[in-house]
């Protein structure tokens, strides 16, 4: 939605005479606008805290600051089928239920140790480990493909400019 | 009044019309305009200008809304094109969406299409081997299809001609099965690939592992700079369009070159309905077009017409070009139009691991890989199947990260890759035999959104293909085993025909008008001012990638066509 809307605004700014580039017309309005309202604000906050617990802030930003939960929401909303979406939603609800049961407060109100113990219990539970591995996998993917990590930590190169077929393995690696 | 009508006709009259702007249409446009012909290039899709219309060419991975993954809705709406390896969040704009351009699958056939200026030349995998006489003599030797009316010697100078302009990298390997070309420096090998090459050379006299020949500018020559193209930067995101012009596409190379002559009129959004045949003049006089935006039918006229709509659409256009002289399609006196369609068998692949050379790894990326030319049934028939297969091969170093645990330790581990051993992999590219029973035809009732009959595709595998898959798996397993590779796994994907994106034939060349549509100049036997130089013209399919051969044939046919025009014979 954002890019398309931005382009439309540009078109309007130029007196509405500028037509969108043809490739922009091919964008699917629903698929690009769906994700923003898919999760309730409460679910969104909970998801951010779950992701932050899995990959917390240290001397570098954690999952929440990098918007990993936004990425997860987009994938769940736009790329998953209904069955997996429901599986994900009920798993997320179970996180709060487990926190309430164990610590009589919401997951978001728990301290780090308490949160980890809730998630570790889910990982050990035959019913809930599926959800946990799904959310953990998405968190890792969102984190590793974030701009911060790719530019500062894993040093993605858009333009390597070369291919060397046989170089010594560097001791650091 | 009469003058107005004459002027109106003049306005839509050109020396030549080229139908299609993909890999062969681009060459037709370049050659015809270069020889001074006012040329109209008709493209059914939208315009795609080099760089300007590559919206994702510099998009970073994190800038894709779903980090490259396709939304479910797009996948569900496009079950066919979603099977293509190059269709992802960064490339959907260059592929035909299933529902927009329907066709009928009499047998499963995954028809992958790129309807835009440049066509699939933006998306191809860029492998460019010459064919040899083992390929052109195949049908006559092995008794299938019909004899090719040309041999390697007819094409060799034209291969050189297009290679120099397009920019082909490769090594001169001196192999009879794979003639050398005008090469820019080859891409680099990695250690395990070189190791495998030596192992194979040491065990087999007739099997070779060579560096792939690919349409990448590894060392730009003046002719490439003149096109505004530069050296390949090893990004390996070619299918999004290359801002350097590092690989060959019509958009980066032939189309702008044709435009510079001032002789080209490019008309996008022009869906060709049919070719107009004038019975009094005994030749084709123009092309009927449905404007994709207004759906209005219009006509354009020219002395010669090049049909480069991509193999199956070229069949469709000719089948739909009916007249009392040609009630079954233009030039179809023989009845073979639409028949003898064939493709490449990509069903099998094999993978393995190598635990040597652990002190070495690779750096950078390479848009190419080594290649194993055909070694079966080359000099004589030795197997229980006809023809043979080539194979791709590559090796790379694997790594993983420790993803155990949760919190700060997990976070630290995620950015510390642990280097594993080498993986090795290969895929087959088998020649399929063109048969009358593999055909395309027009549907009697169903129309596409432009009112043109839908294409019925009835093309599939046969017993020969199954035997070839089995032999490839056995032979590659043996070669991998000899090299000491471990954990060897072979699979037959059973993928439908079409997904190879190497569909060919239906308008085949041949010596005899009774059994073929085109003569040795790619000219319709019975309608001499119409030329077909895309994949539709192919008499058989070889084991090599076909695009370079389309380029060479197009340049050759255009040269002939203009000479004949000047002589007044067409």
UniProtKB/TrEMBL annotation, chain A:
Keywords: Oxidoreductase, Signal
Single annotated GO MF: oxidoreductase activity
Residues making up the signal peptide according to the UniProt record: 1-24
Domain of life of the organism encoding this protein: Bacteria
Signal is among the record's keywords: yes
InterPro entries noted in UniProt: Gluconate_2DH_su3
EC number(s) from the headed UniProt entry: 1.-.-.-
Pfam family, one: Gluconate_2-dh3
First-level EC class: oxidoreductase
The name this protein goes by in its record: Gluconate 2-dehydrogenase subunit 3 family protein
From TrEMBL, chain B:
Gene3D superfamilies: FAD/NAD(P)-binding domain (3.50.50.60)
Gene Ontology molecular function: flavin adenine dinucleotide binding; oxidoreductase activity, acting on CH-OH group of donors
Record keywords: FAD, Flavoprotein, Oxidoreductase
Boundaries of every Glucose-methanol-choline oxidoreductase C-terminal domain copy: 434-553
Pfam family, one: GMC_oxred_C
SUPFAM superfamilies in alphabetical order: FAD-linked reductases, C-terminal domain, FAD/NAD(P)-binding domain
Superkingdom, natural source: Bacteria
Cofactor: FAD
UniProt xrefs under InterPro entries: FAD/NAD-bd_sf (IPR036188), GMC_OxRdtase_N (IPR000172), GMC_OxRtase_C (IPR007867), P2Ox-like (IPR051473)
Glucose-methanol-choline oxidoreductase N-terminal domain ranges (all copies): 227-323
Flavoprotein is among the record's keywords: yes
Family the entry assigns: Belongs to the GMC oxidoreductase family.
Official protein name in the record: GMC family oxidoreductase
Record organism: Xanthocytophaga agilis
Source organism phylogeny: Bacteria, Pseudomonadati, Bacteroidota, Cytophagia, Cytophagales
């Amino acid at each position: 939605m954002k890019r398309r809307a931005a382009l439309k605004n540009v078109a309007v700014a130029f007196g509405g005479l500028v037509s969108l580039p043809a490739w922009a017309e091919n964008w699917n309005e629903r698929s690009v606008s769906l994700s923003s309202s898919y999760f309730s604000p409460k679910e969104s906050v909970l998801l951010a805290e779950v992701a932050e617990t899995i990959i917390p802030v240290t001397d570098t930003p954690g999952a929440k600051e990098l918007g990993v939960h936004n990425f997860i929401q987009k994938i769940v909303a736009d790329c998953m089928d209904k069955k997996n979406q429901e599986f994900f939603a009920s798993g997320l609800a179970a996180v709060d239920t487990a926190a309430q049961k164990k610590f009589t407060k919401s997951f978001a109100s728990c301290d780090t140790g308490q949160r980890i113990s809730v998630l570790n219990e889910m990982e050990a539970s035959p019913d809930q480990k599926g959800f946990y591995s799904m959310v953990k996998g998405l968190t890792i993917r969102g984190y590793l493909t974030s701009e911060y990590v790719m530019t500062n930590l894993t040093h993605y190169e858009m333009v390597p400019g070369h291919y060397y077929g046989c170089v010594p393995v560097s001791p650091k690696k | 009044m009469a003058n107005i009508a004459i002027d109106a006709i003049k306005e839509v009259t050109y020396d030549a019309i080229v139908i299609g702007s993909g890999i062969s249409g681009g060459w037709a446009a370049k050659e015809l305009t270069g020889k001074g012909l006012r040329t109209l290039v008709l493209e059914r899709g939208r315009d795609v200008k080099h760089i300007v219309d590559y919206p994702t060419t510099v998009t970073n991975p994190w800038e894709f809304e779903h980090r490259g993954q396709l939304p479910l809705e797009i996948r569900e709406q496009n079950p066919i094109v979603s099977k293509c390896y190059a269709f992802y969040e960064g490339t959907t704009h260059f592929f035909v969406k299933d529902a927009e351009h329907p066709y009928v699958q009499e047998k499963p056939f995954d028809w992958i299409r790129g309807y835009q200026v440049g066509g699939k030349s933006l998306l191809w995998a860029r492998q460019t081997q010459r064919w040899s006489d083992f390929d052109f003599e195949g049908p006559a030797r092995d008794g299938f299809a019909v004899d090719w009316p040309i041999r390697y010697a007819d094409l060799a100078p034209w291969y050189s001609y297009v290679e120099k302009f397009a920019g082909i990298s490769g090594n001169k390997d001196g192999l009879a099965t794979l003639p050398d070309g005008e090469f820019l420096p080859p891409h680099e090998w990695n250690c395990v690939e070189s190791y495998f090459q030596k192992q194979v050379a040491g065990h087999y006299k007739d099997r070779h592992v060579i560096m792939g020949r690919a349409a990448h500018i590894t060392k730009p020559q003046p002719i490439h700079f003149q096109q505004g193209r530069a050296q390949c930067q090893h990004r390996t995101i070619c299918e999004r369009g290359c801002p350097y012009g590092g690989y060959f596409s019509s958009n980066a190379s032939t189309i702008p070159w044709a435009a510079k002559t001032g002789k080209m009129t490019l008309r996008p959004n022009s869906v060709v309905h049919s070719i107009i045949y004038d019975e009094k003049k005994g030749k084709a006089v123009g092309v009927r077009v449905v404007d994709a935006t207004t759906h209005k039918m219009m006509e354009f006229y020219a002395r010669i017409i090049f049909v480069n709509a991509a193999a199956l659409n070229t069949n469709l256009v000719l089948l739909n070009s009916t007249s009392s002289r040609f009630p079954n399609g233009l030039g179809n006196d023989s009845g073979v139009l639409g028949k003898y369609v064939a493709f490449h068998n990509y069903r099998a692949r094999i993978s393995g691991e190598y635990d040597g050379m652990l002190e070495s790894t690779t750096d950078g990326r390479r848009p190419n890989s080594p290649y194993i030319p055909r070694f079966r049934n080359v000099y004589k028939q030795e197997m229980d199947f006809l023809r043979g297969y080539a194979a791709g091969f590559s090796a790379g170093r694997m790594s993983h990260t420790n993803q155990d645990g949760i919190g700060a330790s997990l976070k630290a581990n995620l950015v510390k890759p642990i280097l594993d051993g080498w993986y090795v992999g290969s895929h087959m590219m088998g020649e399929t035999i063109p048969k009358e029973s593999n055909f395309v035809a027009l549907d009697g009732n169903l129309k596409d959104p432009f009112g043109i009959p839908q294409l019925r595709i009835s093309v599939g595998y046969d017993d020969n293909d199954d035997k070839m898959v089995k032999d490839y798996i056995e032979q590659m397993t043996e070669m991998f085993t000899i090299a000491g590779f471990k954990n060897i796994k072979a699979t037959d994907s059973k993928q439908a025909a079409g997904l190879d994106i190497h569909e060919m034939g239906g308008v085949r060349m041949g010596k005899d008008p009774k059994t073929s549509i085109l003569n040795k100049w790619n000219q319709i036997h019975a309608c001499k001012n119409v030329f077909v130089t895309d994949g539709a013209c192919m008499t058989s399919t070889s084991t090599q990638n076909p695009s370079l051969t389309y380029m060479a044939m197009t340049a050759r046919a255009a040269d002939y066509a203009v000479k004949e025009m000047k002589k007044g014979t067409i």
